[in-house]
Design brief:
Length: 313
């Protein structure tokens, strides 16, 4: 195992992948490239959605929120991860750990609810096309987005505060690469059964409940699509939902594997690699999925590029 400086009293030690120094070098390059793509891709979606009037619709309003969540989520984790992967020091200050815990948990919880809201938007677009503009009016969209953000903030204030108040009796080695609730409660020197039950209940509310709503929405969408006889309408319905369904599969498939899996296996490398997927890889894929599979976004990007070129001339 790589030498870890434990002389800084009070600081937490993020053990991460320090037992695999060769892997750390590979991960540093992969994470750095993924982070740069995340910054560029999500910033481009936000700018295009805000600048192009044709994208001032509920779908792209929620997509802008999702891109902003992904930008902040990865930024709360990746810079510290890159620092730890690059050098021998694996430490993070208690304040830095608390900030990372609060921000990442709030944004992760917000994304769970936001994806469910986006599924409802797709349900309204496909199953209620004639009433879509009436149903998804601007005030409702703002309320739904606000609900997603408030649920994330509320969850992190409760879960994060309870976790940080647990007595640790000098334990400061976190067998993970981020300050995350499941890893942090393992440092406690008291019975954590109540905390594990609380974490499981929070996972049910903020993971499985939104996932159930998403599945119900798409079951209704599939039922509606099956009644469509026009091939063009089929392609349009599948195209408008395909991107969101891919994002849902990537995010929920990895997050549920970490938060719903048995606690005994969490400290192993499998849990760390899965966490790496939803904290680094998934936010990178989101803008690629929405741009490569979405004609509206690609068209908006082309219009902005042509506009810039004509302005430059």
């Amino acid at each position: 195992m790589a030498t870890i400086n434990e002389s800084l009293a009070g600081n937490f030690i993020l053990v991460g992948f320090s037992d695999q120094p060769q892997l750390e070098k590979i991960l540093f390059v992969v994470v750095l490239i993924s982070y740069l793509l995340t910054l560029v891709g999500n910033t481009a979606i936000i700018l295009v959605s805000c600048l192009d009037p044709l994208l001032h619709t509920p779908m792209y309003y929620f997509l802008t929120n999702l891109s902003f969540v992904d930008l902040c989520f990865t930024t709360s984790i990746v810079p510290q991860l890159l620092w730890n992967l690059h050098g021998p020091s694996k430490t993070i200050t208690p304040i830095g750990c608390a900030i990372q815990l609060y921000i990442s948990l709030a944004l992760g919880s917000t994304e769970c609810v936001l994806l469910a809201v986006m599924a409802f938007d797709r349900y309204a677009a496909v199953c209620r096309p004639l009433h879509y503009a009436t149903v998804m009016h601007s005030r409702l969209c703002q309320s739904l987005a606000g609900m997603a953000w408030l649920s994330g903030v509320g969850n992190t204030l409760i879960q994060g505060t309870i976790t940080l108040r647990l007595p640790r009796c000098g334990n400061h080695r976190i067998y993970h690469f981020i300050c995350e609730v499941p890893a942090m409660i393992k440092l406690a020197c008291v019975d954590i059964h109540a905390n594990e039950v609380q974490l499981f209940m929070a996972s049910l509310v903020l993971l499985l409940l939104p996932l159930a709503l998403i599945l119900i929405s798409y079951a209704c969408i599939i039922q509606a699509v099956m009644r469509i006889r026009s091939a063009q309408a089929w392609r349009k319905a599948l195209g408008t939902c395909g991107s969101h369904l891919l994002v849902v599969s990537l995010f929920y498939g990895t997050v549920t594997a970490v938060y719903i899996q048995p606690n005994s296996s969490y400290a192993h490398s499998q849990g760390k690699f899965i966490t790496l997927l939803y904290t680094v890889v998934t936010p990178t894929f989101n803008p690629l999925i929405y741009t490569l599979r979405n004609k509206d976004v690609k068209g908006a990007l082309k219009r902005l590029v042509r506009k810039d070129q004509s302005t430059a001339e």
